[in-house]
Amino acid sequence: MVWIKNKNVASAFHLLILATATVLLLQYAYTYRQHNILYYHISNFKGKMVDTVQDHFNMTRIHQLQNITRQFFYPKKDIIDFKDHEIFLEKCNPETFTLLNSTKETCNVTHTHVKQYKNCALVGNGGILLNSSCGAEIDAHDFVIRNNLAPTAEYSKDVGTKTSLTTINFAVLWRVTNTLKRKRKDNVELQSLLSRLSETPGMVFVYPLGIIGLENLKAIDIVMKDKGIPIVLAFSHRSIMTDKRLLYRKLADTYWNLPSTGVNTFALASTFCDKISMYGYYPMSTYHNQNVPYHYYGDPGYYGPAHKMEEEFAMFQDFHSQGIIRQVIGKCDSD
């Protein structure tokens, strides 16, 4: 211990220690309060969400839908753990998902990190999410599914930050691979990507468009291990976009030559989620006489003419009215 003989200096020193301790205590109290507020909001939304689930969803209709979608999608073949890619290619036919030495026996060497979940949030990238205050409600779900690594941190109030699974298209897969190859630590795009991938440890990062992307996933896997980023890479035995016309004939009584990624992601999610709330799926350019941007994060984008977005939206509206899904459009209750 250091003894200070000058009483004035000693007194000033003690006051400095007291002031420092007070500041630290106030900072701790503020941080603790903010943490409790955040925890309260998420817990509060979870309680409200459970009440909404009980009031809205029709489990009989949901099971009827699952009986159809499970004929076309299955997590063990559409969200395959990347660790299984070598044995999968060695022993299985990617096209039929059968063992190579059999035309009937299902490929049984794959695993998936996806389980069965009671309630899921399926979050699209639509501009309808801007100023929605849906973030806490989204994050309160057991499992949150997003698309194409859309940014969340700067829009957290509206879209939340939790990501349990993200699906990516080939353009995003290519961009991620090329960005991760950059070596300079001061590269802004690289650091932004690494930060996004680190936001939710254990996030399943799935390329659902077949084995054509395996080489890219290998490159990503190497960097993720090197950086110690705990995400789970996954792939599909073949593209989830392939030949789903019969599925939507059964679901919507129509043929779509090219169903959108969003509607296929919904169909896949329905096989492992019992109750799905959908956010950010709104293809119209206006809502309540206000313009709605294509994406909530500023990318202008556009709806390709090949997709029947308004017809898909009508299907989701019908499912909502039947209690099969809960479609959230506009503002969420932020109390």
TrEMBL record:
Highest taxon in the source lineage: Eukaryota
UniProt record, GO biological process: N-glycan processing; oligosaccharide metabolic process
Main location: Golgi
Topology relative to the membrane: Single-pass type II membrane protein
InterPro entries, per the entry: Glyco_trans_29, Glycosyltr_29_Sialyltrsf, GT29-like_sf
Alphabetized Gene3D superfamilies for the sequence: Glycosyl transferase family 29
An annotated Gene Ontology molecular function: alpha-N-acetylneuraminate alpha-2,8-sialyltransferase activity
Family affiliation: Belongs to the glycosyltransferase 29 family.
Protein name: Alpha-2,8-sialyltransferase 8B-like
Gene: LOC109462266
